[in-house]
Design brief:
The complex is a heterodimer of chains A (999) and B (198).
Chain A: H1 9-21, H2 38-57, E1 66-68, E2 82-88, E3 97-103, E4 106-112, H3 125-134, H4 152-165, E5 169-173, H5 179-191, E6 195-199, H6 206-216, E7 221-224, E8 231-235, H7 246-255, E9 271-276, H8 281-284, E10 288-291, H9 297-308, H10 313-322, H11 326-338, E11 343-347, H12 353-365, E12 373-376, H13 387-395, E13 400-404, H14 408-411, H15 417-422, E14 426-431, H16 436-440, E15 443-446, E16 455-460, E17 463-467, H17 480-491, H18 497-500, H19 504-511, H20 522-538, E18 540-542, H21 555-562, E19 571-576, H22 590-593, E20 608-610, H23 612-618, E21 624-630, E22 633-641, E23 649-653, H24 664-667, E24 687-699, E25 719-721, H25 722-727, E26 756-761, H26 770-778, H27 786-790, E27 799-805, E28 812-818, H28 827-831, E29 837-839, E30 845-847, H29 857-861, E31 868-869, H30 874-878, E32 900-901, H31 907-919, H32 932-936, E33 942-946, H33 953-958, E34 963-964, E35 976-979, E36 981-983
Parallel strand pairs in A: 5-6, 5-13, 8-9, 8-11, 9-10, 13-14, 14-15, 19-23, 20-22, 25-36, 26-35
Antiparallel strand pairs in A: 2-3, 3-4, 7-12, 16-17, 17-18, 19-24, 21-22, 21-24, 26-33, 27-28, 29-30, 31-32, 34-35
Helix pairs in contact in A: 1-2, 3-26, 4-17, 5-17, 6-12, 6-21, 9-10, 9-12, 12-21
Chain B: H1 4-32, H2 34-38, H3 51-57, H4 62-65, H5 80-87, H6 103-112, E1 117-119, H7 132-137, H8 142-146, H9 163-170
Helix pairs in contact in B: 5-6
The chains are: A alpha/beta (999), B mainly alpha (198).
Chain lengths: 999, 198
């Protein structure tokens, strides 16, 4: 049951309350009785009028409701109480472990699985938002053929018959496949002789992996170990945003950035140099950031390689050609040499093989293998097949094609795939939605969602995780791999082991050794069952295995590969996965569409990001459409002027311009960047170096949630360098001016009970925005749509503010999660005419929705601008289907139009934690209560706790000398402390703190 | 314009209309006053289940059926399987052949595995987050809120379950030396908004 409010509920309840409070016996605890405050006067006045009004409003009757008891109740499930399941997120680019909260049998919130060694409790925005896709009303609900809905039996008959007759079959899947899926595909290929398996993915690191394959001689992937690195150099690799196992990267990078006050004189953090073409999350966290076109990356690697060996001539040449300040490069080389064995160089997956070969040589020279680099022989993602091979196969004639959760019609990096599909006699499209591909196929089959599916994954050797369903399929859907299983089974001869399995789940269980076989003894059966249940409970088996060492580098191969020159004739284009909707597969998810891009703060849209100088030379400004042509592909995109971009570079994202598969994606921006993939060189599909750009004369208004990136000289984000910090841990006190603080209010007494507070370490927050979606999922925050965002009405309780500092062409970036500060002297409370926002004895600034009449005075008086107002019935416009109500957290009220709302510090979690402790008759433990944002944060930058507990983590962080409050001088006494960011620029280039100069 | 006499009549008429109007409004307010109206609410249930018999005469513990009350937010109306723990034996007719009303309906539902749709007697607004377990653990008896259920043939709402009524209890001062004092509270229950509303 959702906590939906009946229309007009405020009026009646607030009248009731006011009537009750108008009585003279009002609580003595809150205000001295002999003073008549403004509120008292108001109360009497309102009480009197409410008595009159009651005669009219009191007639409203509450709907009579029923309690429907079950026939037989399950023992382990009590209504209203959460049950948690561990599972695996198989939808995204990496199979992270997840912990799923279900209430009354419906999944409502996803967290990271704390036992999972790769991501621990952290989660990505895609993981968090996955629960919304489960209840997406636009999902394909039943199997369809050309004529309309059909039964699964008819589908199976037709497909099996088609496969039997076919002499040539194409099976196309995603790259992120579990070991059991791979085994099943192997069996399918064995029983269907004409079949070939192709892996299709637009976001992949195929270029990098084939380069590694060449230089190391074996297939696999190098695993960067950022936590062990003192100096990190990133060449266009957004490892904190989109490259690799991002959650693991953020966690290990943050580990190398965390500071404790004790021993601050000898504090050490890692140092991050980023050489990049586009402004990314990684670049925003750099200590030194150099802007460079992607075509120059090969030169940089070779110059660095020679310079580390003592020949620094190339650095100067590089400086001349690309306009990079070579003193910074020299300092970087010095740093690398001084940190041999503790340094790490990474390069972006879109860069050509020459760069990766050079990086391998450089890492080898710096003694990274075994220290900061490990090896993973079996990556979680399968290598992607060459699109041309698929095209040739289809051209030669294919009788049947099966597409499992891929969308080549939308994002095929080659010929028009819809045309290719027409040549195929039987095409089977399996997908969550009726997307472009499923719509073009002769059979449109609904896939089950990740949370309705059985699966497994092996992200690293020794880590095997299980994916288990947490809800029965909501529709007549079937897991795509289960379909393949049933077809394989039907094609297999009688008597083979696969025929013994009842279903895909059975098949999976046998492979996990959890199958109960009749011939064995009872105790063995019990043991097996126990083991299987343990696997389900933990989410997999996590054996600590020794790190696999990097294979020996083949120097000759690496050197010859690294010398391949890259031509650069025109504008250079890089195409990255979108921060939220990834390659377009999450395009129908409103939470993700409305999540501001961490760099540009753009919502609902795709853009071509260019540097201010490039915009000038193109004579365009923000919103002007430009046509980008690469080879025979072209796309039209609005311009977004992004400081920090390298000149002559255009950066854009995949995932937009979807045309079919739901209503949400219709609102999103157009311009499918997949049209540019591989048009110049299929070996580097996401990079083009000779693009032509023309101004079209059209324009589109881009919606950004933040447009002003300057702090205007105010001390909002305080930062210092490691040098400063070593000299004085309390350097922040010199960076702000504190006037004498006076208050006209009597201070509250918080000495007893709890006093809740949050501390956010700006030194480790990378700005990934997982907290924003976690908050949205936990607190039933509505989607408002593109139009409403354009007038500044987005509803996120938590946002990441971004500030630029220094060089306007290549700014230093500061990020600051901003949420309700739960002020002790809250300015919002004193202006509310109806007492709808009040103060709790535990230091929370409470928002009572059923009292709020929507004057918005509080929002007007809030210096942090963290209050959000429901201008329209957002939840009503968002809800197109009662199904969507199932996604609501039943512990949080769904707000109505005309009501103010804001961060509550997840008061429902606080209450639940307190109740649990009290019912068990014990004191609350520190860190027992976690807010949603804290739980999701992969960097563990957010800590929530009780300040009155001197041993708590929060109390220690508050005592940190780096702690400061935002707008402290207003004396609102916030309860969110920020720990100043300590950057670690190279002291020998101290005058170049903001990185190199360009042009 | 009007004659003096007529004018007076107008005054009297207006006064009379106003007086009877005021009387009507006050009467209406009195009758429709929610707490008054909602206390005493006694819907007809699909089975004439007698709490007087089960809880009063037979002395079955409240928590036997309402097993969620000490564990979670909802007290729970029991699943049919709980009823059948006894009613597998306790049949529609006793040994003397007297009819026990309602048991045949129960058996019918059980046979068809069809849940019974009880009418909710005690219902608070959706924006109130009430938790039974906290109150049971705080040694509030069931009767303090639900009234003397063990004496009721058919359950009836004894109290209006309005906020002022909740607060009347929450605001009670704690005796000196109560362990809850150490947490900085001086009243029996918390009285800040987010204790119940979020």
């Amino acid at each position: 049951m959702s906590r939906d409010s009946a229309p007009g509920f405020h009026s009646r309840e607030s009248m009731q309350r006011l009537k009750a409070e108008a009585l003279p016996s009002r609580s003595e605890n809150l205000a001295p009785p002999d003073e008549i405050t403004r509120r008292d006067a108001l109360r009497v006045l309102m009480g009197a009028s409410s008595a009159l009004a009651l005669g009219l409003t009191g007639c409203e009757r509450k709907p009579r409701r029923q309690i429907i008891s079950r026939a037989t109740g399950p023992e382990w499930q009590r209504p209203g109480e959460a049950v948690y399941y561990s599972s695996t997120w198989t939808d995204g680019d990496f199979p992270y472990g997840l912990m799923l909260k279900t209430v009354d049998g419906r999944p409502i919130k996803i967290e990271g699985n704390p036992d999972h060694p790769v991501n621990r409790e952290g989660s990505t925005v895609g993981m968090q938002a996955s629960v919304l896709s489960l209840y997406d009303p636009d999902r394909l609900r039943a199997p369809h053929d050309e004529m309309g809905a059909v039964s699964w039996e008819a589908v199976d008959l037709r497909v099996v018959e088609g496969l039997r007759r076919a002499s040539s079959v194409v099976l196309m899947t995603r790259a992120n496949l579990g070991p059991t899926e791979r085994a099943l595909i192997g069996q399918f290929l064995a029983v269907c002789p004409g079949a070939r398996h192709f892996v299709h993915e637009t976001v992949h690191d195929g270029t990098r992996r084939s380069a590694w394959n060449m230089v190391y001689g074996v297939a696999g992937e190098a695993l960067p170990r950022f936590e062990r690195a003192g100096v990190i150099v990133s060449l266009d690799s957004d490892f904190l945003g989109s490259d690799g196992a991002v959650l693991e990267n953020i966690r290990s990078f943050a580990k190398g950035r965390r500071l404790a006050d004790a021993g601050h004189r000898h504090a050490e953090t890692n140092r991050l140099y980023v050489v990049e073409s586009a402004m990314t999350v990684t670049g925003s966290n750099a200590d030194h950031r150099i802007r460079l076109r992607p075509s120059g990356m090969g030169l940089v690697v070779r110059a660095l390689l020679r310079a580390v060996d003592g020949h620094s001539e190339d650095l100067a040449a590089l400086g001349r050609v690309h306009g990079i300040d070579d003193t910074l490069l020299k300092a970087l080389v010095q740093d690398l040499r001084a940190n041999t064995g503790k340094s790490l160089v990474v390069a972006g997956p879109h860069l050509p093989g020459a760069v990766h070969a050079g990086v391998a040589l450089l890492n080898d020279r710096l003694d990274a293998p075994g220290n900061t680099l490990d090896w993973n022989p079996v990556p979680a993602k399968m290598p992607v097949d060459d699109p041309e091979e698929v095209e040739t196969a289809i051209d030669r004639g294919v009788d049947a094609a099966i597409f499992l959760d891929v969308n080549p019609v939308y994002d095929w990096p080659g010929k028009d795939f819809a045309n290719l599909l027409k040549k195929i006699h039987l095409s089977v499209g399996h997908g969550l939605h009726r997307d472009e591909t499923v719509a073009a196929c002769s059979l449109a089959l609904p896939s089950s969602h990740n949370l309705e599916s059985w699966n497994d994954a092996e992200p690293r050797s020794g880590i095997r995780t299980i994916c288990q369903p947490t809800i029965a399929p909501l529709f007549e859907s079937r897991q795509s791999i289960e379909s393949l299983f049933l077809w394989t089974q039907a094609l297999t001869k009688e008597g083979s082991p696969i025929r013994e399995c009842e279903d895909w789940h059975d098949y999976l269980r046998i492979r996990w050794g959890g199958q109960v076989v009749g011939a064995e003894s009872y105790s063995e059966q019990r043991e097996q069952r126990q083991r299987w249940e343990d696997v389900l409970r933990r989410g997999g088996s996590f054996e600590e295995k020794k790190a696999v060492p990097l294979p020996k580098l083949k120097r000759g191969a690496a050197e010859s590969l690294s010398r391949v020159e890259l031509s650069a004739d025109g504008y250079e284009v890089t195409i990255q996965p979108h921060h939220a909707v990834y390659d377009g597969r999450f395009a129908n998810n409103g939470w993700l569409q409305e999540l501001p891009d961490p760099v540009s703060k753009l919502v609902w849209d795709n853009a071509a990001s260019v540097s201010p100088q490039t915009a000038q030379s193109l004579e365009v400004s923000e919103g002007d459409m430009i046509a980008i042509e690469v080879g025979d592909g072209s796309v039209e995109l609005p311009v977004l002027v992004q400081p920090g971009m390298a000149d002559g570079v255009i950066a854009t994202s995949l995932g937009f311009g979807r045309t079919a598969g739901g209503q949400i994606l219709q609102q999103a921006g157009e311009g499918n960047a997949a049209a540019l993939l591989g048009r110049q060189d299929p070996a580097t599909p996401r990079l083009a170096t000779d693009a032509r750009v023309t101004k079209t004369g059209r324009s589109r208004k881009l919606v950004r949630t933040q447009k002003q990136f300057s702090m205007q000289g105010r001390p909002i984000v305080l930062t210092g360098t490691l040098e400063e910090y070593r000299k004085d841990a309390g350097f922040v006190s010199h960076k702000r001016h504190m006037p004498e603080l006076v208050s006209m209010y009597q201070p509250y007494d918080y000495s007893k009970g709890h006093k809740w507070a949050i501390a956010i370490d700006l030194g480790v927050c990378v700005g990934c925005s997982a907290c924003v979606i976690a908050c949205q999922a936990e607190n039933n925050i509505p989607i408002v749509g593109r139009e409403q965002c354009a007038v500044g009405r987005e509803m996120h309780w938590m946002r990441i503010d971004r500030y630029h500092d220094g060089d306007s062409e290549n700014p230093t970036v500061h990020q600051q999660p901003m949420l309700c500060q739960q002020c002790d002297n809250a300015p919002c409370e004193s202006v509310c005419p109806v007492n709808a926002t009040t103060h709790s004895p535990e230091g929370l600034n409470e928002m009572v929705y059923n009292r709020c009449v929507g004057t918005r005075y509080c929002s007007n008086n809030c210096p942090y601008k963290v209050r959000r107002f429901n201008f329209l019935r957002y939840q009503k416009t968002q809800l197109r289907d009662p199904l969507q109500e199932l996604a609501f957290n039943p512990q949080v009220t769904v707000r109505e139009m005309g009501v103010m709302e804001k961060c509550t510090f997840c008061v429902q979690r606080i209450t639940a934690g307190k109740f649990r402790a009290k019912n068990e008759g014990r004191a609350l433990k520190d860190s027992e209560i976690q807010t949603a944002c804290q739980q999701a944060c992969p960097a563990q930058a957010i800590v929530f706790g009780d300040l009155n507990d001197p041993q708590s983590r929060i109390a220690k962080l508050y005592a940190s000398k780096r702690a400061f409050f935002v707008l402290e001088e207003y004396n609102v006494r916030p309860n969110v402390a920020y720990l100043a960011r300590v950057r670690n620029p190279n002291p020998s280039s101290a005058e170049n703190v903001s990185g190199g100069h360009h042009g | 314009m009007f004659s003096k006499k007529f004018e007076r009549r107008i005054y009297i008429a207006v006064a009379a209309v106003m007086f009877s109007g005021a009387l009507g409004v006050s009467f209406g307010a009195y009758v429709l006053w929610p707490s008054r109206r909602e206390a005493g609410y006694q819907p007809v249930q699909p089975i004439p289940f007698s709490h007087k018999l089960h809880a009063g005469i037979l002395q079955i513990d409240c928590l036997y059926c309402h097993s969620g009350a000490e564990k979670g937010p909802h007290a729970l109306v029991p699943p049919l399987s709980t009823c059948m723990n006894c009613h597998a034996e306790v049949q529609p007719k006793d040994s003397l052949g007297n009819l026990r009303p309602g048991i045949d309906t129960l058996l019918e539902h059980w046979e068809n595995k069809e849940p019974i749709r009880w009418n909710k007697v005690h219902d608070v607004a959706d924006f109130v987050y009430f938790d039974h377990s906290r109150h049971i653990a705080g040694e509030v008896t069931c009767q303090e809120c639900h009234g003397p259920v063990e004496r009721m043939e058919h359950v009836q709402r004894t109290y209006g379950l309005k906020m002022s009524w909740c607060l009347a209890c929450h605001k009670q001062r704690l005796p000196e030396g109560d362990p809850a004092f150490s947490e900085g509270r001086t009243t029996r229950g918390p009285i800040h908004c987010t204790a119940c509303h979020r």
